[in-house]
Amino acid sequence: MHVRRHVIHLVTVAVSLALLTGAAVVGWAWKTSLLPDSYDVTSYGYHDYGGGAVPAEAAAHGLHHAHVGTSVARLHGPTGVPDVRFRLVAQRTTIRLASGQKVEALTFDGRAPGPELRVRQGDLVEVTLVNRDVEPGVTIHWHGVDLPNAEDGVAGVTQDAVLPGASHTYRFRAEQHGTFWYHSHESSSTQVDRGLFGALVIEPRQSQTAETLDLAIVSHVFDGTDTINGVPGVQHRRVAPGSDVRLRLVNADDNPKGFLLSGTRFRVLAIDGTDLTGPTPLERTTLELAAGGRYDVGFTMPDRPVALRVEGTPALLALSKDGRTVAPIEQGVTTTFDPLGYGEPSETPFDAQSTFQRRFRLEIGRKPGFLDGKPGMQWTINGGIYPDVPMLMVERGDLVLLEIVNSTSKVHPMHLHGHHALVLSRDGRPLTGSPWWTDTLDVQPGERYELAFRADNPGLWMEHCHNLGHAAAGLTMHLGYVGVTTPFRTGGDAHNHPE
Ligand code: C2O
Ligand code: CU
What we know:
Elements (H helix, E strand, L loop, with lengths): L1 H32 L12 E3 L7 H6 L8 E2 L12 E13 L5 E7 L8 E4 L3 E8 L9 E3 L23 E7 L4 E6 L4 H7 L2 E7 L9 E10 L2 E4 L5 E5 L5 E8 L5 E6 L4 E5 L2 E2 L9 E5 L4 E7 L5 E5 L5 E5 L14 E2 L21 E14 L2 E8 L8 E5 L4 E8 L5 E5 L4 E6 L2 E2 L6 E2 L1 E4 L4 E7 L5 E6 L2 H5 L3 E6 L2 E2 L14
Parallel strand pairs: 1-25, 2-35, 3-6, 5-10, 11-14, 13-21, 18-22, 23-26, 25-34
Antiparallel strand pairs: 3-4, 6-8, 7-9, 9-10, 11-12, 14-19, 15-18, 15-20, 16-17, 16-19, 20-21, 23-24, 26-32, 27-31, 27-33, 28-29, 28-30, 28-32, 33-34
Bound molecules: CU-O-CU linkage (C2O) and copper (II) ion.
């Protein structure tokens, strides 16, 4: 009797608590969940100064009202005569895959992927984007290129989307070298899916090696069909034994992708456009590449054939001396490449022992709530649903520690614009191999990464999940430099929808 009464009592308490907190959550979420018709990205969420200095001006007026400030529009690339010029026309195109399948695509120059752009380190690059007929507009973001903010191509943050019939010119100096890619950052979850992307390769100022086959491999799923450079199934390439081969893998999808190389040992030469030091030969190892990430792999072409497979799909690049043979899949592939302990340690400009001016922690979670008035299970950052997310505030020159924790059951490829971050540790285990610089980092369920970066590129920079569906569902934030403002507006009725 006694026991039963207690149980009933406990149940009553639990139910009323749930109702109370539920009501509080719903009431709160309702208040903050309707996005205004258009808004300045610096005005939503809350400013997180990461324990560092809070400038008096920003504290007193709010960043977006700062009287003295630099508009992102002024943070543009260099003037002068470009070393190399491109023109990319965005248009609606029906493409036909090699399998005969028709895809209603959005393309650059009528192709998906768009043309591979190749430049040399040090070049002043000029690209004119022409939008023929893509609604509601188009931009080009140079993924992984740490360029001046106004050239970053984010609709509603660094520019207005380029409307049908209009054009826009990007200019930047290619200071880095490596593998990058470009894609629209207007309605990106739709436009990248439909084909508005391509590879950007920046060759080193002096090529150290005379690679005889240097190929960008852009993988993407079009309407359910896996492709390599837009080709489904097997594609052949004739390569002479002894040739140096460099394959630049780019994952242009929303999910991680496994690549499997058979017929040769290989090295991972670079990650996210940054060379590794002392890479050692690998075999029977799957390369699992984050959505938006890049791995460069290199090997000397053996006498026998080599095959690059997109795991679990028929997409395959066959390299052989006769241009006809496909290397068999290797048995006993058990390892997945882990950059945390690969290659040789070498000097870095900062490390875990450095003094950090700002420390940020981002915990990705999930909870029921409202996103723009619609109920559902929502992504959260530090417990808040977009737009109730932090804006990471820094000042130029700060050394920043960024901790990312994934408390969800899905992988999140976190991408920071305009900067490369050094991985310090994963789940408390420090990096032991080559310095690992990243711009797009897969954070697996339950994982915790510590990253460090130098705030050396003033502007307003997106920090978001590169599962673009997740980004559109609220996994989006910004890194802001104190005093930088934007004249552009995002959201609602504005035609700028970066996600
Ligand atoms: Cu690949 Cu925000 O971008
Ligand atoms: Cu995600």
